[in-house]
Structures are given as C-alpha cells and as structure tokens.
Amino acid sequence: MPPIVLASTFAQSSPGVHQGFEYARTDNPTRRALETCLASLEGGHYGLAFGSGCAAMTTLFLTLRPGDHVVSCDDVYGGTFRLLDKVMGPLGIETSWVDLSNPSALEAAIRPETKLLWIETPTNPMLKLVDLTIVTEIARRHGVLSCVDNTFATPVLQRPLDLGADVVVHSTTKYLNGHSDVVGGAIITRDEKLAEKLRFLQNSVGAIPSPFDCFMVLRGIKTLSARVQAAGERATKLANWLEGHAGVQKVIYPGLASHPQFELAARQMRAPLAMISVVVRGGLAGATRMLERTKIFTLAESLGGVESLIEHPASMTHGAVPPNQRAAIGIEDGLVRLSVGLEGFEDLRADLEQALSFT
Ligand code: PLP
C-alpha cells in the first residue's frame, strides 16, 4: 500500500539539492501515487489531484484570460454554473450555455475568442448525452480546448480522452473515492504544455488535497470497476421498475429504450450508469413527500457512494441555477435525482415503493 506521507517539507542534502520532493504543496509522494493512478485510469499522460472538484475546475479556468470565451453545455452541475457565471464572469471570462446534444448549436456558439468547451455527459441532472466524438472534433477544428467532466460516467464507463477530448476533470468526491468520506478533484490530460501550466497553477494556487485524502481515493479506486458495474445493474432494474409505477410521470435514464439517446449511450458508454432522474406526479408536493419518506435512499446532496442517495435538484444541487434557466433545461419542481448504491435491489425497490405510495 502506498504510505501516507504527512511531511510538509523534505530534507535537502545541499541548498536546492533534494531527493525528489521539496515541499508538500508542490509535490508529495502519496499525491503523486494518486496522480499517476488517475492518469492511467483515463488513458492520460498527466494527472493532477486537487482538494475538490471545484478546486480542479478553478485551476483549469485560471489558464483563461480576460476576454476569453467558454462554451458550456447548458445542463451542468450547479457549482460549475456558479463558478463560471459568478466567479469567472466578473473576471472577464464569458460563458455561453448551449445544448450540446445539438452539434450545430455548438458551431453557432463558437467565436474567435472561444478558448474552452466544457462538457458533461451524461449531464447532471437531466442525463442528456453529448456525442463526444462529434463535439470534440468541432472544438479541435476551431482550436478550442475540450474538457469533459467525467464524474458521472467514470473511466469505467467512458474514457473521453480516447474519444477526442483534451482534458478530463473529476470530482473524486463521487465514484472514484466512492465512500462519501473525501472531498477531492482531479484533472487529467495528454497535453504536455497544458500539464506544465496546470502544474504551475496547482503549486501557485495551492488548492491541493491532503495526503490522507489521496490515500483514501486510491483505496476507493481499487473497487471502482466492481462498484460502478454493480450499482449500474441495480439502477437499470430500478429504472425499468419505476417506468411502470403509477406515481412516476417520467423516468430519465440512458439505459432505457425510452431515453431519446439510448443508442448513443449504448455506443459511447460501456454499461449503464447508476444515476436515475424521475419526475414524480404531483410536482413539488409529490417530490417532497417522496424525498421525506425514503429510508434507505438518504436525502442528501452528492452521489457515487456505496450508499444510495436521493435529492431534489431544483432546491439542492441546482439551487444556484436561476429559475428561468432551470425551467429551460427541464429541472422542474417534481424532478428527483437518485444515486443508486450497493444495497440489495429488493430493499431499494421496496424503499421507493413505500415512498411513492403516498404520491
Ligand atoms: N462535477 C460534478 C458533475 C459534480 O456533481 C460535482 C459535485 O457535486 C462537482 C463537479 C464538484 O465537485 P466537488 O463537490 O468535489 O467540488
């Protein structure tokens, strides 16, 4: 097992002559072990670990300059929206929000000053897919760097660098760690120049993870493939069952034939994911009743842990997205998001059954 090296500084034999490590913000053996593992998982050449997914995104966005323009898919994690809109916007970096499931909308949104294409697929929480081969090719043709937030799919289900993306970002808080006991983030790329810039920013900005958290994420990764596959199997069965439930208006799940991008999901992803979104009958009141009644599905933000979670995007994870934009994306008040964990399928189904029996 990699040791958890807690030292904040490392002895030098002569001024400036060190044995591979100098100061722990710059580099640390446990963090380096995680970074090497992350790069390998995504098929990248360089991996960088951060103190959160948001810290990873911020560090990447700091490669941009005032006047630069970002095109992002419209249905992103609320924190990503807040970061681009409320933090990078006032610094002179404008973002256009585009439905990337329509490639011609991307062509139309790209400007001469566009520097970054931000992609989530499947998106959070509407589980829309973006055809990575098509959009990354458009970005490359326009000299735009393409970055995929691969938190939802994980490299077990899709490897964006193999499909043409330049950069992959993760909230390792989710599936990679997988046990809801670490907040962390990562950036992976094959681009040497970009990696050098990011390494400089990682050290300069200092949004790094602790060695203990790096160890925890490494440990979580050992079971990543088994967890993602087992949770995906449970989610597929639950989605099928939910689709026939009278209390549910709509099930949004790329592993169902009713999903408009079912074929793209089957082509682009190795197996179905473990996230399901449902529109509950009765709007906000129906959703609230369900959210208050589940016992195994814990009402909490986040996803990707061994335990199942349930949440209300409009008031929780996507509360930072303005109501008109939420409505345009389809985040209605009756929408509920499920992160399916590793509990027994029958227990999960029975929990949803009793929670929905009141709607
Ligand atoms: N990206 C996605 C898809 C997320 O769901 C989240 C958090 O929920 C983040 C990024 C941000 O990660 P963190 O909470 O580790 O800062």
Explain what this protein looks like in three dimensions:
- The model has no long low-confidence stretch (mean pLDDT 96).
- Helix 1 runs parallel beside helix 8 (211-221), helix 2 (53-61) packs parallel to helix 3 (78-88) and helix 11 crosses helix 13 (345-356).
- The protein is of the alpha/beta class.
- The chain has helices spanning 29-41, 53-61, 78-88, 103-109, 132-141, 154-157, 192-205, 211-221, 224-243, 262-268, 283-293, 323-329, 345-356; strands at residues 46-50, 69-73, 94-98, 114-120, 145-149, 167-171, 185-189, 248-252, 275-280, 298-299, 309-311, 335-339.
- It is built from 13 helices and 12 strands.
- The longest helix has 20 residues, at 224-243.
- Strands 1-7-6-5-4-2-3 form a 7-stranded mixed beta sheet, with helices on both faces. A 5-stranded mixed beta sheet has the order 8-9-12-11-10.
- The structure holds pyridoxal-5'-phosphate.
- Pyridoxal-5'-phosphate binds at residues 52-54, 77, 79-80, 120, 124, 149, 151-152, 171, 173, 183, 185, 302.
Q: How far apart, in Å, are the first and last alpha carbons?
A: 49 Å
Strand order in space, largest sheet: 1-7-6-5-4-2-3
**Structural classification:** alpha/beta
Q: How would you characterize the largest beta sheet?
A: 7 strands, mixed
Helix content: 25-40%
Q: Which consecutive residue ranges, at least 5 long each, have pLDDT under 50?
A: none
What string, H for helix and E for strand, traces the elements in order?
HEHEHEHEHEHEEHHHEHEHEEHEH
Sheet-strand content, in percent, reads: 15-25%
Inertia-based shape: globular
> Average pLDDT across residues?
96
Rg, Å, rounded:
21 Å
| Ligand kinds | pyridoxal-5'-phosphate
Count of alpha/pi helices: 13
Report the count of strand segments. 12
